[in-house]
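(Structure overview)
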Amino acid sequence: MNEDGIQRNLPELELPKALSAEELDRLTEDLVAALKTVFDPEIPVDIYELGLIYKIDVDDDRFVNIDMTLTAPGCPVAGEMPGWVENAVGGVPGVSGAKVSMVFDPPWDQSRMSDEARVALDMW
């Protein structure tokens, strides 16, 4: 009731709740798992282990911004890969949406690959 004694039934605004550390950890794990389902068609290793993901940023609205690169700027799937990544991470429970930005600075090189990728590609 307000000061006039009148009760008003106003809908409460639902403000986004800030991400807790636990929720961010869970989302990060789920996002990495989703990224590991996306492969460069010419290389039998997922884009995460290849080191193509440079940044994953999750805001309080659970919107995900990803900076990624390609093994080469002239990659034949350059136009399609961001959509594959957006679809993969956009399907993670709790994510409100995703945007992928292609970056080429710093340029990708083999030092960005994980040990798992090196084993898969026999690049020791």
